[in-house]
Amino acid sequence: MPKSRMQKAVMWFFYTLATLQGIGFYIFSTQSYIVLQDYMYGRERLPFQERVMAAVLLRSILHFDFMVSLFNRLHGVFSPPVQGAFLLLSYIWFAIAGYFCVKLYRAVSYRRTFDFLVYPLFLCITLASYAVQITQDYAYPYDIPSLAFFTAGLYFIYTRQYLPLACVMFLGTFNRETTLFLIPIYLIDQTAVANASGSTMPRFDLSRVPWLRSALLLLIWAAVKLPIDHHFAHNGSDNQLRIRENLVNIGPKHWPGVLNICGYTIPIVLLLHRRISPRRFANYLLIVPLWIVVMFFTGVMLETRIYGELSSLATIAMLLILEDYAERLPRQVDLKESVQPG
Q: What is the pTM of this model?
């Protein structure tokens, strides 16, 4: 085997172990806000029960007696079997998310300087979002699949593959309704144009709005979401506006938790967005304010997993910023040396 292939094989072997360790820690260190048995069989409260894909997948895994027996023999984080199924489900979907995150970086980056760093950084940022929590340390079986669908959606938007994007919208909405955020990102991608004044903030050409395709994406989302809402309309509900709760939780003592958005990387990339190139990808960060506003009304701000899907966006943005610094550093060193008295 050529040396480069051997290096890649070893690298991905360690990535595999790191993923197992990371996902195992995620499952072990968090607690479930829902009763998994009730969730699997359609008895949980709303909005949790509406995220049906993970329930179907968990039931499918536990349908096989040899899987149940395996989880019981492994003990630890794999037991009880429903928790083992949760871990296996999260592991597989994180691998899918990591695959699309790497592909997205390779599509976006001109240099690919940090290709080797994409997957481990993505793992670290994801764990910071979903597992590094002091309060509200909850985990849900649809969280990591949602990350995978969102990352795939970003990739298909950037590479302008509409049919796969529509498939992600259809399948991903069975898992979680946050696929809706892919539509404004799609519109940003299609309508943003360079600002002639040289500003890094884009301007938008509304004549470029793909009305039919955008409407179709929204229709796909609604065609999945509304029947699910109707089907579980008689379940108990935990749906409520979280405004008052979030206003209480934005005091200084809660800042470390509230600002832990993708392991503090989202605040960093927003501050350093001018260093992100290509600007077309940097424009996707405009989704962050909208995401925060929506979650202020519907989510618990201390529960940082509500931003988890943004982990791939944060990962690529951070690496593009590092690329910019890596390119500028030799120039700065050469400039300093050139002005040294000789």
A: 0.92
